[in-house]
């Protein structure tokens, strides 16, 4: 459920991010030609040998208008309205389009609608020439505004280097093609099919449009966010699976311990003893032999239960198991065989050493403080196994030796070999 909510939140954030990048992360620079940041100039062909004359006309609505009188006698007559930045060259790579509200009028050779030429003039110190206005690289778009819905949005990727300029200004390979990182002037000029007469270029508004974060970069960031989220989810899911696996293993181990342990005395039961012997054989093989088996049976235990109750009897069994475990080496095994009977398994111990250990334990029981002031003794039977095949026989022999100890008067150790 949490994952579904997180996924829904990520989808919503992605959609909001795309919408915000499209509508609210937009940067605009208005070309107004006023103030300390911009300059507005008019240019005509009179500086190039022509006779045309351009003048700036003030419009009541604040629009910038150029009135141009095209004169005959020059091959390429023109008039131009030019915006320049007073703070140095403009880096238009941060923008995506030029938005225009414009109109053009004037006679044309083909009788068609008047055209408007838009130039983005860029500078580079390695361009040929003396660095004057004619040596700025012009990036050009030409269209007829008549009949078009305003504003017209010109993508900066549509601007191409004017072929006539490229022919007169040969460039090295690395400077060929559009370069919009150092635009010195943005110009609006009459078209190439003008006839002598009056021409008017009216720019109601011009804006450079861009994004604070380019859409490509923003979308790449969103892809990165999704990939990072997916990676985070996979790591989190892996951690959860591992945690569940650890808990499952711990529960399995706990259940296994419960299944292999006597719940009253907390020593191994028969199954636990068999499992421990199996692991011991797997780890050390025949090195664990000779192995001694000792059967221990509490004396007169039924009398303890009858005279003092089963609660005291349980306390006696628990203390007996604890005493045996506390006075044996760690490698020796202790298990409850059933009722008041216990089994000790001593790896790498011959029968005579096991008899000595059993005698020592018998003496420990005599010194132990038992519940209800009881004096608890036990009968002990010892047998030796020389290999794995003889282990089962040693179990039977030790059990029989223990019964012989009981019949002989209890509280004593008898070896099967005696």
From TrEMBL:
Reactions this protein catalyses: 2 GTP = 3',3'-c-di-GMP + 2 diphosphate
EC number(s) from the headed UniProt entry: 2.7.7.65
Matching InterPro entries: Diguanylate_Cyclase, Galactose-bd-like_sf, GGDEF_dom, Nucleotide_cyclase, Rev_trsase/Diguanyl_cyclase
Positions in coiled-coil regions: none
Pfam families to which the protein is assigned, alphabetical: GGDEF (PF00990)
Top-rank taxon, per record: Bacteria
PROSITE patterns referenced in this protein's UniProt entry, alphabetically: GGDEF
Xref: SMART domains: GGDEF
Domain GGDEF per the UniProt entry, residue ranges: 289-418
Gene3D superfamilies reported in the protein's UniProt record: 3.30.70.270
Annotated PANTHER family: DIGUANYLATE CYCLASE DGCM-RELATED, REGULATORY COMPONENTS OF SENSORY TRANSDUCTION SYSTEM
Protein name: diguanylate cyclase
């Amino acid at each position: 459920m949490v994952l579904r909510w997180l996924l829904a939140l990520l989808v919503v954030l992605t959609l909001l991010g795309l919408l915000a990048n499209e509508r609210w992360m937009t940067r605009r620079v208005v070309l107004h030609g006023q103030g300390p940041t911009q300059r507005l100039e008019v240019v005509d062909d009179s500086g190039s040998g022509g006779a045309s004359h351009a003048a700036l006309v003030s419009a009541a609505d604040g629009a910038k208008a150029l009135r141009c009188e095209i004169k005959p006698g020059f091959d390429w007559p023109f008039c131009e309205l030019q915006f320049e930045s007073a703070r140095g060259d403009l880096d238009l790579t941060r923008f995506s389009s030029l938005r225009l509200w414009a109109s053009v009028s004037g006679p044309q050779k083909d009788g068609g609608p008047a055209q408007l030429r838009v130039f983005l003039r860029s500078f580079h110190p390695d361009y040929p020439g003396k660095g004057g206005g004619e040596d700025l690289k012009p990036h050009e778009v030409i269209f007829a505004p008549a009949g078009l819905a305003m504003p017209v949005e010109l993508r900066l990727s549509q601007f191409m280097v004017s072929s006539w300029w490229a022919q007169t200004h040969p460039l090295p390979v690395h400077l060929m093609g559009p370069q919009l990182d150092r635009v010195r002037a943005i110009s609006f000029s009459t078209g190439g099919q003008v006839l002598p007469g009056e021409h008017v270029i009216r720019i109601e508004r011009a804006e450079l449009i861009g994004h604070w974060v380019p859409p490509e970069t923003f979308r790449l960031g969103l892809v990165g966010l999704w990939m990072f989220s997916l990676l985070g989810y996979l790591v989190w899911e892996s951690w959860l699976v591992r945690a569940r696996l650890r808990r499952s293993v711990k529960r399995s181990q706990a259940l296994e311990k419960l299944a292999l342990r006597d719940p009253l005395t907390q020593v191994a039961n028969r199954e636990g003893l068999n499992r421990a012997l199996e692991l011991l054989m797997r780890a050390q093989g025949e090195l664990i032999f000779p192995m001694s088996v000792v059967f221990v049976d509490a004396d007169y235990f039924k009398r303890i239960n009858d005279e003092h109750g089963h609660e005291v009897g349980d306390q006696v069994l628990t203390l007996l198991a604890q005493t045996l475990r506390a006075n044996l080496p760690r490698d020796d095994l202790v298990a409850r065989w059933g009722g008041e009977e216990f089994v000790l398994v001593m790896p790498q111990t011959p029968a005579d050493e096991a008899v000595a250990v059993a005698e020592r334990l018998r003496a420990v029981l005599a010194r132990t403080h038992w519940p209800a002031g009881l004096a608890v003794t036990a009968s002990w039977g010892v047998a030796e196994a020389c290999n794995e095949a003889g282990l089962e026989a040693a179990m039977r022999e030790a059990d029989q030796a223990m019964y012989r100890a009981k019949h002989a008067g209890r509280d004593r150790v008898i070896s099967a070999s005696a």
